[in-house]
Write a structure and sequence with these properties.
By secondary structure, the chain is α/β, with parallel strands linked by helices. The strands form five sheets. Strands 11, 12, 13, 14, 15, 16, 17 and 18 form an eight-stranded mixed β-sheet that branches. A six-stranded parallel β-sheet has the order 3-2-6-7-1-8, with helices on both faces. Strands 22-21-20-19-23 form a five-stranded antiparallel β-sheet, with no helix packed on it. Helix 8 (about 155-160) packs antiparallel against helix 9 (about 165-185), helix 15 crosses helix 16 and helix 17 crosses helix 18. The structure holds a DNA duplex.
DNA sequence: AAATACATAATTTTT
DNA sequence: TTATGTATTT
């Protein structure tokens, strides 16, 4: 029984209905949090299909694979969907690149390099360029390359516009990096967007073909697309400009990754006839929550004001909880959750805890375990990032792509085969001018005179072994891994030893299970698909909703989700907003949007907390409540002081509201380390301020480097750095950590 | 070449 | 606190 259009339109508000019914021509939906965006999207697709549009003419782009799966499920509940593409931009890119591989002069079996691979490759490119004496880190250079790629800039054009020293260094590295990628038959994350974008630009025939194939394009979380992604969307919507983008500028939280809010302006410029529909009414949160979020985001100046309103109840006030320290915070939050569940009002799955940084999960983890409260930390890839699993995956990658030198280097001596750094240098020197992969070079190791005895035979044996494993790539994934573990000696390496190895072995076994399940779900999926799936997975993709447990995740991972009760922990200056954002107003505004995203996840109850003392990199510092707490309205917000010092309620927000008025940048000046850690008496606090005792011009004595003069002091608190000129050269230290004695004050 | 001890540096967010 | 690199020994 095919559902009638009424079916999709029931219970929709007028703007929602407009959005669903607008099928032809460009459409921009500005959807505030909780405005029923998902419903509109699914109904709109269902409506399209109902009107006779073939599912395979529709392309829907989501932000995570999980969101893609969810959307598919929801639409399928209404209509059959065979042939419709729903994926992330990156998965879409891979699919196009594999499909049109020959045409784009690509090997279909390319490996996808993640950011860790990228870092290592940049490092080796740096070495190849012989620029190891510069102070730029591989990561900063990798970041610059990534940014260039996001802006569709290839090495030659980048070199052309490189003016300052840094850009010029990057330009050189970028070119070598690209060559290395090509030689390894690998693409990095950015290439998965860059290549399709350029293909659409340069190959008119291909562009027209894909444009006609995907006559209806839908893009969710549009505020977080970058230039390359926009180029793809644009290229697919010229002959058939039925493109619908959905986003909320106030929820843009990936500027640091290249997302560009200007894409919204460009959309209206490139599609002047575009219809714009605003979904403002919130159906998710209580009035109290929404008002608090609204008041917060109103502090952003780079923003078009937009009303948030709801017909929902006022509900409980938003709570700001003050704790003595991070340990207390974790324990008491978990306890509050447990109490609510014990009282029978809630399930564990109703609760989410949001954090700005992953590193903050530690205290929570032990609190959950101690109080026996079920929880899951949503950090999807952690399992595959374990050394043993990465090793096994590297073996698989090398089997599938023998040119993958990075993987070769990872496993060539794992288990030990008597092949050390020097031998590998000889091997590289042999391989490079001959344009051989390291694996190919290894197979003819006897021709390399510089490599002797054990190393030489080890290399040849390795190449031989990989060749023998080759036919197994067609076996089932789990069988392949099992064989691989036996024949490479990896299992033997782990089998003989201590408990740590036992655990590693167990992890590898779990990897086999994962591969097995992956294959069982869909027998057509290969080991290559398995690897691809792991690389392109997002953090939330590992989130299991079916469990009745508390979810812990970063604010970034929380995007798009909702929970009856949300806790946002560590709302402290330096953490939220993060210290790395404090230098620029626009970065602070992004942090504020991040807080806004977190707050608007909550349906019924919202709790924000901070602690007076925060353990940080092994030492305890005084914390300053987040400036964002001071931006909340007094109405509908309740402040509760649960700290031992109990200085009375409401100090939190007064801190920011009233005259204290410290500049944002100065929070870490109050960060006074306590020694020894965890001591909380005021006496100890008072006398130790090592970070501030050094000044420029001082002469100091260092245990190792001898006497030197301080030439620069920067940063604050635990991050305070001092630069010292010794006879042997200049060196930088963390002020707190350096073992120095003052010889002469200036 | 590999194992070990030792020092020291670094820590946002992620497809 | 943890990961990474360096120097030293076997």
């Amino acid at each position: 029984m095919p559902p009638t259009p009424d079916h999709f339109l029931q219970n929709l508000t007028e703007p929602q209905r407009d959005a669903v019914l607008h099928t032809e021509g460009p459409l921009l939906i500005l959807a505030g949090p909780g405005s029923g965006k998902t419903r509109v999207i699914t109904c709109r697709v269902a409506n399209l299909i109902h009107q006779g549009v073939k599912p395979y003419r529709i392309l829907a782009i989501t932000f995570t694979n999980k969101a893609a799966g969810e959307m598919r499920k929801r639409i399928e509940a209404m209509l059959p969907l065979r042939g419709m593409w729903i994926s992330t931009f990156h998965s879409f890119g891979v699919r196009i690149l594999r499909q049109y591989a020959e045409r784009l002069n690509l090997d279909r079996n390319f490996t996808i390099y993640d950011q860790a691979d990228r870092s290592r490759l940049v490092k080796s490119a740096l070495e190849a360029c012989k620029i190891d004496n510069v102070r730029f880190t591989p990561d900063s250079i990798a970041g610059a390359i990534s940014k260039a790629k996001n802006q569709l800039m290839l090495p030659d054009r980048y070199a052309g516009q490189a003016k300052d020293f840094f850009s010029q260094v990057v330009a050189g590295v970028y070119e070598v990096y690209e060559k290395k990628l090509r030689a390894a038959n690998a693409l990095d994350f950015d290439d998965l967007l860059l290549w399709p974008a350029l293909a659409l630009k340069n190959d008119a025939e291909l562009r027209a073909e894909l444009d006609a194939r995907f006559q209806y394009v839908l893009i969710d979380e549009y505020q977080d697309t970058n230039k390359a992604q926009y180029a793809i969307a644009r290229g697919l919507s010229i002959d058939y400009p039925n493109i619908c983008v959905v986003g909320d500028p106030d929820q843009s939280i990936y500027k640091w990754r290249g997302s560009d809010i200007r894409n919204i302006l460009d959309f209206e410029r490139d599609f002047p006839q575009a219809r714009v529909i605003t979904l403002g009414e919130n159906f998710r949160s209580t009035k109290a929550i929404l008002q608090a979020a609204d008041a917060l985001i109103a502090n952003n100046t780079q923003r078009k004001p937009k009303p948030l309103f709801t017909a929902n109840n006022t509900g409980e006030p938003v709570r700001v909880l003050q704790f003595e320290n991070g340990l207390d915070e974790a324990e008491q939050v978990v306890q509050r959750i447990r109490t609510a569940v014990d009282d029978g009002n809630r399930h564990y799955r109703d609760f989410a805890i949001f954090l700005r940084v992953n590193a903050l999960t530690r205290n929570l983890e032990s609190a959950f375990i101690r109080q026996r409260v079920p929880f899951q930390i949503v950090r999807g890839l952690a399992f595959f990032e374990r050394k043993e699993n990465k090793d096994v995956l590297a073996y698989l990658r090398l089997l599938l792509n023998p040119h993958d030198d990075l993987s070769f280097l990872r496993i060539i001596n794992e288990p030990a085969r008597g092949i050390g750094k020097v031998s590998l240098e000889h091997l590289t020197n042999y391989a490079e001018p001959r344009e051989l992969s390291l694996l190919a070079a290894a197979s003819e190791a006897e021709k390399i005179s510089a490599i002797k005895g054990k190393a030489s035979s080890g290399l040849r044996a390795f190449a031989q072994m990989m060749a023998e494993l080759q036919p197994l790539v067609d076996a089932t994934p789990d069988e392949l891994i099992r064989q691989l573990l036996d024949r490479t000696g990896y299992r033997k390496m782990l089998a003989e030893n201590d408990e740590e190895d036992q655990e590693r072995l167990a992890n590898v076994e779990e990897l086999i299970t994962a591969a097995h399940q992956f294959h069982e779900e869909d027998r057509t999926r290969t080991i290559g698909d398995f690897l691809e799936n792991i690389t392109l997975a997002s953090d939330v993709d590992g989130w299991d909703e079916s469990q009745d447990c508390v979810s812990v995740m970063t604010l970034h991972a929380a995007k798009g989700l909702e929970f009856p009760v949300a806790y946002m922990l560590a709302c402290e200056q330096g953490l939220l907003p993060h210290e790395r954002s404090l230098m620029k107003d626009e970065d602070v505004e992004e942090e504020r949007r991040l807080a806004f995203v977190g707050m608007t996840r909550a349906k019924e109850e919202l709790n924000l907390s901070w602690a007076r003392l925060r353990e940080f990199r092994g030492q305890t510092l005084y914390a300053v409540p987040s400036m964002f707490l001071g931006e909340l309205p007094e109405d509908g917000v309740e402040t509760i002081d649960l700290s031992a010092s109990g200085a009375g309620a409401s100090r939190t927000m007064d801190f920011w509201r009233n005259g204290l008025e410290r500049t944002r940048k100065s929070w870490y000046d109050t960060g006074i380390p306590l020694t020894p850690a965890r001591t909380q008496t005021k006496a100890v606090v008072a006398d130790a301020v090592p970070s501030r005792k050094y000044t420029e011009g001082m002469v100091v004595e260092h245990e190792v480097h001898g006497r030197g003069r301080i030439i620069e002091v920067s940063g604050h608190g635990a991050l305070r750095k001092i630069k010292i000129r010794f006879r042997s050269g200049e060196r930088a230290f963390i002020a707190d950590k350096a073992k120095l004695t003052v010889v002469e004050k200036k």
